[in-house]
Amino acid sequence: MLQLLYTAIFAQMFVVITFLFKTPARKLVIITLDRVKRGRGPVVVKTIVATFLLVLASSLYSIYKIQRRTLEVAAVNPTDQVLMSKHVLEASLLGFLLFLSLMIDRLHHYIRELRLLRKAMEAAKKQSRIFGDGKSGSAAEHNKALMEEIATLKPKIKELESECEVKASTAKALEAEVEALRKQSEGFLMEYDRLLTDNQNLRSQLKGIDHSSSHFDDKKSM
């Protein structure tokens, strides 16, 4: 499960990075996302997201049960500590995975809107040049209307560009957060190994105590 989550997160990081730079990979990713959002694609994506949400809710509920059991017993169980660390790591990765999915969806939407606005501006400029070279009167009025439309579209383009810059900075921050989570997960794994070793030592000690007590009872019965 953890390997699957790490693979999905790194794949999402690759998609976010492709959005930041104008490369053929970005065009391929945008085309792929456009196809995913058509037909039955949204239904499949919603099903996957709902599954992840259920797994996240299950992990959070398991964390709650372990904490409640620990408070009732008033003692720390090594096995519960290991399970607690595993569920916390899974919940963190699932939450980050869902957050990255939302970011990718919004970035894709803004990039599409920006491309449509740029195409509209280019078409308006071509039409204005055609009308400017030929007719006057009604053509001039139409040209004026086109220029006014261009003037209204420019603020929207600037707004979308600023939003893309904000999303790009957010993506960089998310990349740093993923690296921090990776280091944290390595710490959890080391703690997991240490707890397993302690658990095995405790079991061996209990077996030794049981063996010595049974040997003492045998001597006592003799």
Textual characterization of the structure:
This protein is mainly α and 222 residues long. 92% of the residues lie in helices and 0% in strands. The chain is built from five helices and no strands. The radius of gyration is 30 Å and the shape is rod-shaped. The two termini are 55 Å apart. The model has no long low-confidence stretch (mean pLDDT 79).
Distance between the termini: 55 Å
Mean pLDDT metric: 79
Give the helix level as a range of percent.
over 70%
Q: Tell the overall outline.
A: rod-shaped
Q: Main beta sheet, described?
A: none
Ranges where pLDDT stays below 50 over 5 or more residues in a row are none
Tell me what portion of residues adopts beta-strand conformation: under 5%
What is the ordering of alpha helices and beta strands? HHHHH
What is the number of E strands?
A: 0
Structural class: mainly alpha
Radius of gyration: 30 Å
Helix and strand arrangement:
Elements: H1 2-20, H2 24-36, H3 41-73, H4 78-133, H5 138-221
Helix pairs in contact: 1-4, 1-5, 3-4, 4-5
Summarize this entry quickly.
The chain has helices spanning 2-20, 24-36, 41-73, 78-133, 138-221. With 222 residues, the chain is mostly helical. It is rod-shaped.
